[in-house]
Design a protein that fits this description.
Blueprint lengths: L7 E5 L3 H12 L5 E6 L4 E6 L1 H10 L8 H8 L3 E4 L11 H10 L3 E4 L3 H13 L6 E2 L10 H11 L2 E7 L2 H11 L4 H10 L8 H4 L2 H14 L10 E2 L7 H6 L2 E10 L2 E10 L14 E7 L3 E7 L4 H19 L1
Length: 323
């Protein structure tokens, strides 16, 4: 990292992804200085070691800290990292954390899709036209979908893409194809740590829809909003197609002269379709460019460490670009 880079970071959220992020700071020589760590119950501010924060968190609640703005004024981070538990409907507390970080003049990184899917335009307006928002972890976690989308946007005219962006649904649909009920399939996914305690956002298609919006904005100058995506969850899967196998919850987006048309629905894919090869919790995106043709990015680990790795890469990239 350049000597001119201010490596001060503040981390919000000390759940699974937050703990994995602090573990990575301990394991890797990134040259970053942790100056604040906070969760919904308290905060630590100062010259912090990731190990000490984790020990403090394991021993009990963090001490009550200052409010969000006061914390940022005291810590003065150059990057605010939002790994907090976020309400999908309101996008809080992530939306407030991101806005405060941008208002304070720094860059922000988030692993949460809701604030981007619901407030893309206002957040990027707050960034004043510069690239001060990192969000790779919000649209694929370990799957480098955002990086590939950014690269293709620079080199080709991408007309459309389709994607399987929620590993939970592939796992559930495969189990249902094997004869399991939807309830048993979801329960098995929860037991393996693939599905959330409340899986409704995933199986209802809204997780995919949010990620679809993020990728569409990465590729195109558009005004697509999550409420403009036509969404059908796995409950809409045809029983006969399910028994035959190959059904995936697919998000599709196409740029047209009238704007971007986007949808999410369970689709019976042909056996030779690239996305039909995904198994278990794997994710994938198939981009279609005018010159490059079809470009597939697939795989990615559905695990907190995968999301933490993507967030850390965003932090380092934003700091380097700011140098």
């Amino acid at each position: 990292m350049s000597r001119d880079v201010d490596p001060r970071i503040a981390v919000f959220g000390l759940g699974g992804v937050g703990r994995a992020f602090l573990d990575l700071l301990t394991e890797r020589s990134c040259g970053l200085s942790l100056v604040a760590a906070a969760d919904s119950r308290g905060a630590l501010v100062g010259d912090l070691s990731p190990e000490a924060v984790l020990r403090h968190k394991a021993a009990g609640p963090l001490p009550e800290g200052p409010g969000l703005r006061a914390l940022l004024d005291e810590a003065r981070p150059s990057v605010v990292v939002d790994l907090s538990a976020c309400d999908f409907g309101t996008a809080e507390p992530s939306l407030s954390i991101l806005r405060a970080g941008l208002d304070a003049g720094g860059a922000v990184v988030t692993a949460n899709k809701a604030p981007l899917a619901r407030a893309w335009s206002t957040l990027h307006a707050g960034a004043n036209g510069t690239r001060r928002i990192g969000y790779a972890a919000a649209a694929g976690a370990a799957l480098p979908a955002v990086a590939v989308a950014r690269a293709l946007a620079r080199r080709d005219d991408v007309r459309s893409f389709e994607a399987v962006l929620t590993g939970t649904t592939t796992f559930v649909l495969e189990a249902m194809a094997g004869g399991a009920s939807a309830e048993d399939a979801v329960r098995a996914a929860q037991e393996q740590g693939i599905a959330e305690p409340d899986p409704s956002i995933d199986v209802g298609g809204w997780d995919t829809a949010a990620k679809l919006v993020i990728l569409a904005h990465t590729l195109w100058d558009c005004d697509l909003k999550i409420d403009g995506v036509d969404v059908t969850g796995i409950e809409g899967a045809d029983p006969a197609a399910l028994r035959a196998g190959g059904v995936r919850l697919v998000g599709r987006a196409e740029r047209r002269s009238t704007g971007v048309r986007a949808s999410v629905a369970p689709v019976a894919l042909a056996p030779d379709h690239p996305l039909a090869r995904l198994r278990g919790a794997e994710k994938g995106v198939l981009f279609r460019g005018a010159d490059t043709g079809e470009v597939l990015v697939a795989g990615g680990r559905s695990h907190p460490r995968g999301a933490a790795t993507a967030a850390l890469a965003d932090v380092l990239e934003l700091l380097e670009e700011a140098a």
